[in-house]
Design a protein that fits this description.
Elements lengths: L1 H16 L4 H14 L8 H4 L2 H19 L2 H10 L5 H16 L4 H19 L4 H13 L9 H10 L8 E2 L2 E2 L1 H19 L19 H18 L7 H19 L3 H10 L2 H19 L2 H13 L3 H16 L4 H19 L4 H14 L8 H12 L6 H27 L1
Antiparallel strand pairs: 1-2
Length: about 425
């Protein structure tokens, strides 16, 4: 156990210190866990959640084609033409980004919607900084709403064996989708107050032309496939991953038949292999520390600190997740904490759902607090930098902090009231 703790601590330090090397660090650590015998070779293959990896890869590929079809831009055009001023454009674009992000990766959502905001701000000759920040943090908020909304949701779904519909209604009670929507309404009121003085009129000329609707049909088809699979009993444990990869395969074969080689190449370039390798390595590392008893030790330590009080445990999980995710990537954090909160639930003798949802809510939304807390934030600020707008941490946080804290507090209260 001592060796496992040292290896795990060293792994996490290196993950924080060398973000560009995270995948290689995780894989090297996984190899050490196996070579030292902490994790038996016989358990290596089973340690990796292949369902999660296939879901992420398949979704990323189809989303790339969806973006290339320009359908998101067309939808944004339709929305903008019906709005009176920049305040409502920003609010609706933020909500639009949130809706997309409930089904599409947050970074991909930012890449879709931010260019629309930049174009509007250029025509109105105003700074795009506040608008882009609002879009980024809104996309992060909705990532916890559905099974495919974010990597963190996919991780929870795979670990807790939740299907697509479980995020809407779970065991007869409202799931994360409705909790997130109520949180989003509260956070949107915060945005309305922040943008209350932005009343310049909007007039957009021209429009987006979509030449291929198939990627849109494919994305909708994938979501429907996930929903249908929710009703079918005794499906394979990798059914969600199979559906997502199947959708990607159909889309790629179609483009090959049309001889769109550049588009097919783009699909495989767009898949984030770095994240897939990172997760693969982390799955093995976490299996190793579980095998060594570290997860059980950590669970018992937190329970002891809380005095066996569920409310205290739940509160620690939510707000510690917010704090940690504000500064570190929430993917390794969620991957590490899922078995820990499961162990805590076993010790307390309770259903782990309340801790799962609290963990997901805190870790997903906590990344919104700082510019470096979520990949979507980093991507959005990178786009602003390319446009010549350097964004200070304070400029980001004076929008993100009230937005995030209002959303987290609502989710914190609702999850407790529904699931305690």
């Amino acid at each position: 156990m001592t060796l496992a703790i040292i290896l795990f601590a060293l792994t996490y330090v290196l993950l924080l210190a060398l973000p560009k090397m995270r995948a290689y660090i995780a894989l090297a650590s996984a190899a050490i866990f196996v070579l030292t015998g902490i994790l038996p070779v016989s358990k290596l293959f089973g340690a990796v959640d292949w369902n999660v990896l296939m879901m992420i890869a398949g979704t990323m590929g189809v989303v790339y084609l969806f973006i290339e079809s320009k359908m998101p831009s067309l939808l944004a055009d339709v929305i903008i033409r019906k709005l009176p001023n920049i305040k409502w454009v920003v609010i609706v674009l933020a909500l639009f980004a949130g809706i997309i992000s409930a089904f599409v990766d947050n970074v991909a959502t930012v890449l879709m919607v931010v260019p629309v905001a930049l174009d509007i701000c250029k025509k109105l000759r105003i700074s795009p900084v506040k608008s882009v920040i609002a879009i980024a943090i809104s996309s992060n908020l909705q990532g916890a709403a559905t099974l495919v909304g974010d990597t963190t949701s996919i991780l929870l779904g795979g670990y807790a064996n939740l299907n697509f519909l479980d995020f809407f209604v779970y065991r007869g009670k409202p799931g994360m989708f409705f909790i997130v929507q109520i949180s989003a309404i509260t956070a949107t009121l915060v945005l309305l107050w922040i943008f209350r003085k932005d009343t310049a009129k909007v007039d957009i000329q021209g429009g987006t032309v979509v030449e291929d609707y198939f990627p849109s049909y494919m994305l909708v088809g994938m979501v429907l496939g996930l929903i249908i699979a929710s009703f079918i009993p005794n499906t394979p444990s990798t059914i969600n991953g199979i559906i997502c990869m199947g959708g990607l395969l159909i889309a790629v074969v179609r483009e090959l038949l049309k001889k769109n080689i550049n588009l097919v190449t783009g699909v495989f370039k767009e898949i984030d292999y770095f994240t897939l390798l990172l997760l693969g390595g982390l799955f093995i590392v976490i299996a190793g520390i579980s095998e060594a008893g570290v997860v059980d030790l950590l669970s018992r330590t937190i329970i002891s600190f809380s005095g066996d009080n569920l409310f205290v445990v739940y509160t620690i999980i939510v707000w510690a997740s917010v704090l940690f995710s504000a500064f570190i990537d929430n993917i390794p954090y969620i991957a590490t904490m899922l078995p820990v909160v499961t162990g805590m639930a076993v010790i307390l003798g309770i259903d782990p759902t309340i801790l799962y949802f609290g963990l997901l809510s805190g870790a997903t939304l906590g990344g919104n607090i700082t510019p470096i807390g979520a990949s979507a934030n980093i991507t959005a600020l990178g786009i602003l930098r390319k446009e010549g707008h350097e964004t200070k941490a304070w400029d980001f946080m004076r929008i993100s902090v009230p937005f995030t804290l209002s959303a987290v507090m609502v989710g914190y209260v609702l999850i407790w009231l529904i699931w305690s």
